[in-house]
């Protein structure tokens, strides 16, 4: 078997990205080396919470979760999809928060660091609003 391809997934986990993340977690050809989280479908507090809970439920506490920006970097209002995904992004299902917290390293710095650690091999999977 060849070396697994490292993935860094930039995401704003609502119900749509949750399915993609679960598929990536179980892909034998790829290794998820981190999740960089942005506000998008809902606010950053919920997208980070959702990423951590998804990792916990999937038994993937080994995947670091890095919180990013809570608003766009350009002068544009952040629009969310709470009307589609629920206020919490997971259909307001009422999940308890995950036991662990996000890493202290900012997502932008984690992307830079991991791109050096996996130079020439890292794939940045852009599920979030970038």
- What radius of gyration results from the CA coordinates? 14 Å
Question: What's the end-to-end separation, in Å?
Answer: 33 Å
Q: What's the helix count?
A: 4
Beta strand count: 4
Main beta-sheet annotation: 4 strands, parallel
Strand order of the largest sheet: 3-2-1-4
Helical percentage: 25-40%
H and E string? EHEHEHHE
What is the average of the pLDDT values? 90
Shape: globular
Low-confidence stretches: none
Which secondary-structure class do the elements indicate?
alpha/beta
Strand content: 15-25%
Features:
130 residues, alpha/beta, 4-stranded parallel sheet, 31% helix, globular
Write the layout of secondary structure elements.
Blueprint lengths: L4 E7 L3 H11 L4 E8 L6 H14 L7 E3 L14 H4 L21 H11 L5 E4 L4
Parallel strand pairs: 1-2, 1-4, 2-3
């Amino acid at each position: 078997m060849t070396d697994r391809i490292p993935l860094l997934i930039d995401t704003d986990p609502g119900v749509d990205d949750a399915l993609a993340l679960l598929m990536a977690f179980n892909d034998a050809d790829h290794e998820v080396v981190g999740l960089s989280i942005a506000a998008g479908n809902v606010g950053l507090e919920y997208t980070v919470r959702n990423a951590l809970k998804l990792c916990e439920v999937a038994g993937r506490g080994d995947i670091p979760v890095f919180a990013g920006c809570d608003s766009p970097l350009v002068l544009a209002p952040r629009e969310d999809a709470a009307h589609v995904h629920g206020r919490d992004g997971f259909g307001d299902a009422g999940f308890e928060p995950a036991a662990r917290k996000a890493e202290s390293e900012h997502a932008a710095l984690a992307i830079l660091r991991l791109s050096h650690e996996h130079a020439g091999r890292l794939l940045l999977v852009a599920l979030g609003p970038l």
